[in-house]
Amino acid sequence: MNLTMQFIPEGYFILKNKLNKQIYFMNNFKTLVQVKKEHYNIVNGSFNNLFNQVRDVMEIVKRHLIVEPRILIIGVGDDLLKIILQNKFKYTVKTMDIDIELCPDYVGSIENLQEIISEKFDVVVCAHVLEHLPYNYFNKSLEQIKSISDYSLIYLPIAKFGLSFGIGIYPLFFKKLHFISTWFFKKHSFDGQHYWEIGVREHSLYKTRSEIKRYFNIEKEYNPENWLYSYNFILKSKK
Question: pTM for this structure?
Answer without folding.
Answer: 0.77
